[in-house]
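Appendix C reproduces, verbatim, an entry submitted by the partner laboratory led by Prof. M.T., so that reviewers can inspect both the input and the predicted structure.
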Amino acid sequence: MNIRSEKGYTGIDIAVSVIVIFIFVSMIAMLSYNFNSTSMEIEYRAKALDIAVNEIETMKTKSWQDITTEDTSYREIKEVQEGYYRTIIVQDYHDIDSSKTAQVLKKITVRIEYKFRKNMKKVELSTIITREG
């Protein structure tokens, strides 16, 4: 009996096929996982940006006298939504750039921190307000 003339699959053919299929399936699973992970990270960051914008808009509605650099309650880390923590820093622009006149400009920085996976991520937005009059 001639082995070369027999038709069919050998054990090596089946093993190679299984390995190729396994590699292909694992690559598809990895791509799917990375895509889902990236989508979730974008969603978390977008929510943090939305919170930061709302906090800045809230600060802009306050009067000049109510926004003080001495108020330490702004600097306290406060949970604004589940898993999102806010810190507000108010600085007189004169403290940043000494060539500017004191009590004319204030810089407001809102920092939102959130946990994504095992890492703390943060979003920071700043604006400058002026004293009217």
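The beta strands are 78-81, 84-92, 105-116, 119-130. Additional entries are available on request from the coordinating office.
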